Amino acid sequence: MKPPLRFALAAVVALLLGIVLPGRAEAQEASPEPSTAAALPARQANFAWDKTRLIASFSYRDAIDAPLTQKLSSGLPTIIAMRAYVMRQGEDTPVALAVQSCRVVFDLWEEVYRVTVTSRGGVRDQPVLNVEGVLRQCAEARDLPIADKSYLRAGTPHFLAVRVDINPVSKEMLDQMRTWVSRPTGSTGIGPSDALFGSFVGLFVRSIGSSDRTLRFRTQTVVP
Amino acid sequence: MRKLAMALALQVAAAAMTAATAHAQPVRTWGGERTPPEPSSDAPPAPTAPPAPPPPPPPTTVGTPVEGSTRPEPPPVPKPPASKGNDDPQHTAPAEPTTPTTEEEEEARSQAIVHTPGHIGLRYKLEGVEVQGNTTTLSRVVLRYVRFKAGDTLDVDDKELSVTRFRLLGTGFFRDVQLSLRRGSRRGYAVLVVSVVERNTIVVNDIWLGLSADAEPDGRARPLTAYGGLDVSERNLAGTGITLGGAMALADRQLALRTRFSDPQFRGTPWMANVELLYNNAKDFFGNRDALVDDPQADVRQDFAVAAYRRFGGSVGVGHDLGTTTQLFLDYRFEKIDANLPRAASHVRGRDVEPIDFHIHGGSSLISTLRATMVHDTRDEPFLPTRGTHMALLSELSLSPLGTDYPYAKVQVRASHWFPLSWGHVLRLEGFAGSIFGDAPLFERFYVGDFTDLLPDRVLDLNFDRRAAPNFLDTSIQEVRYGTYAAKVNVEYRIPLYRGTRSIYGIDLFGSFGIYGLTDDLNLRQPPSGYSGFSKVPIDLTFNAGLRIETNVGGFAFGIANLVGFIPVRSEGN
């Protein structure tokens, strides 16, 4: 084989290895994403019956990590949106949904967190003095009404599949953002050669995602 | 055997690293989306800590606990008001109301809190905007993307705050951008703080690798030669936000170089400015069959007539947004061309021997053009879009008053639309139409290899391949190498195979099929002899299949068409 050809072959092999191997290695490192609600990581919840209504208490304080805790004091609003889907064991379609959202904004001059909690029970505003209070109001579900007994099948185990989004981004905003990164500034090429650049900036679409942070878990089962 | 193995290896890697298509992903409630923020490629790897146990649930306080639940806690004891000695010194009790010192402060305070049902909004007078964390990027470059200014009334719920963050992230200069407020110097006033984390801004725009069949300078055909190229940009030159880019393409006795500057906000205006320099040392291959070339050394029958030429010049241009999805660019280009052509050459077109038109003037010539390009882009993603439209409309004018030796006008439009299918796959429809009027040089004409996937595309205007179109339909397309009228319709179907958030973002299997036509005035006026009926129409089919892979260094397309193109169909050997 002529030296230039050997060099070309080596370069191609190196390029392929460079592209494929790191990806494979990282793919192995990454934990597999659960494909069903039942496969989500489990955590304990407290269930109770309030007459015929199932109520639940659980915590998702770990959705607020250190950077987000710091962000709570940024003076700009933080939204913590929680959705709890009632799932029957062995099925993938939820039978009921309970939601609770919380908006927190730190008042720079009054030095309080102004918290607005929205749930099925209505909307309540209150000032909160510190982060612990914010977590108590916004990162815990306390006696959250889940579903009436009539929605649940007697004798069948049910569980909650919970999704918590911090600062969820609206679909309109996501669309606008993706449009920006799809168009490389200054590209006059009429061909599709902007793809590599677009992919580079597309990184941000993915790293931003649809929220600042998402937490998913399931609870233990409860049998009506 | 060795050659074949090497050819296969090269081919797999090569196959036009051009951009393109889609991805599709059903909306999933569980899985498929990232949880922790992804570490950037230039960020240090995050330490792997064991996952903390989930927090215990708060006890239920009403109703009858279900088995396995903790018992209700006793009624909470009223707590004393928080004091300054709280755990978190930053979060203390409300400050004592202070007496406004001026009417302005009183006004600022009075409008600081807005109560509406179910919502409390906060407003501040903006004292200024502060940029933090930028070590390379100039603050004024960051501030270009911030629409707030001192003196504005800032509503903390203003959507422009989120837009500003995403706009800054969209520049590609930063790995992270956070906005926050801090107290101003007077009550009711606040300072907007923009905190950025910079990232590497060197971008690989394009990589080309491939195999072609070309010819020696004396016209003898060669089976295989390799070609390659690279297009790289620094998008934030010395922190100024200016792009400095360079591209190079290389093949046997061919070289193309490009250097370009681009300022997305020229002198702080909403206009983009571009400057580009180009150099091409190129050759091209002519002659359908039985080429006869008037060579200074000897008149011999050759496989091909070879035109060698050099181009040197550049362009300047401006661009402007016409909305959130549309941009307009205007460019002026000036080049000097030095061509070395055979004194005369002929070939067989149809059944007739005809002189070869090289579509370029021998010796020195000039070209200068004015070009307008409008781009409309609503794709949801750049490389693997699932929906949206990308349309580019180009018109170019090169007339004698501009000092050109090639008077011509060119118009072309390319449009693609992506359709998400309900079962998660993606369909793309693509159309192209173009027309050239006048005497355009060969590198401005439509080249058959740019329309069929079975021949290498031109790279930086270099043409690497001597072969005619494959000619599946047995038409006169094999008589056309360069044309002035072109059209193509293409359909692509994509099946997502993998979605990830680390090095590899997505892998899609694709298959495409298209039909194209290419002709010029000569073929319209005087069709090549020997063709009749449908075969007189210079059209043909094209297809491709392979993988599109989107990674954190860019997108790659691995297709089989280029390899299939080396299998002789009808045109080879005719």
UniProtKB/TrEMBL annotation, chain A:
Residues 1-27 form the signal peptide. Keywords: Signal. This is Uncharacterized protein. It comes from Pendulispora brunnea. The lineage of its organism: Bacteria, Pseudomonadati, Myxococcota, Myxococcia, Myxococcales.
From TrEMBL, chain B:
Residues 124-199 form the POTRA domain. InterPro entries: Bac_surfAg_D15, D15-like, POTRA. Its main location: membrane. Residues 92-101 have a biased composition (Low complexity). PROSITE patterns: POTRA. Residues 37-60, 72-81 have a biased composition (Pro residues). Residues 1-24 form the signal peptide. Keywords: Membrane, Signal, Transmembrane, Transmembrane beta strand. It is found in: Membrane. Residues 23-110 are annotated as: Disordered. PANTHER family: SORTING AND ASSEMBLY MACHINERY COMPONENT 50 HOMOLOG, SORTING AND ASSEMBLY MACHINERY SAMM50 PROTEIN FAMILY MEMBER. This is BamA/TamA family outer membrane protein.
